[in-house]
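The pair is quoted verbatim underneath.

:::
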Amino acid sequence: MSDIIISNDLTPGEIIDQDGTLLQVIDTLQNKTAMRKMVVKVKVKDIRTGTIRDITFGGGDKVTLAYLEKKKMNYSYNDGSFFVFMDAETYEQVSIPKERMADQAKFLTDNLEVEITYYKGEIMGIELPVKVALTVTHTEDAVRGDTINKPQKDATLETGYVIKVPMFVKIGDKVYVRTDTGEYDSRAN
């Protein structure tokens, strides 16, 4: 499903289909002077490759909007080559190649609910929750008296990911990690 709109109406967050390439609009700038026609400069991110670039449209140019389908699924397992997700209601399974999951893999734990995004049947990727709770498997003990400037230490999480945490965090603690920055957020219960 797609709609055609004019370039002047593009807003950040929309996804456009430009000759089969899916581009997410990051920012738009409209420039109109008395001497020439309107120009719409659009900063976009290629959904498949992640590259960011600028595109220029004339005012009134037609653009095709693309709509991504989203489906909630739970992470099941990693077989070495693929990450496998399953729909909890239909038991349908989807496999995503390890190469496409490099950034998200460090946050995946058993049964973590994610949103798989599709475009015309093609899997575009996954959307993780804003925060995930992970267990600390290794960290050094805090040194008493070391409290100046919010000291932090390294902690290895159950997925193998290493982050900086406050000194009070111990092995076995659950912590929330932000999936957008990959940083410690707070202690989990």
In short: The chain has three domains: 2-66, 69-127, 131-187. Residues 75 and 161 are 17 Å apart (CA to CA). Residues 69-127 form a domain with the OB fold (Dihydrolipoamide Acetyltransferase, E2P) fold (CATH 2.40.50.140). The chain has no helices and 16 strands.
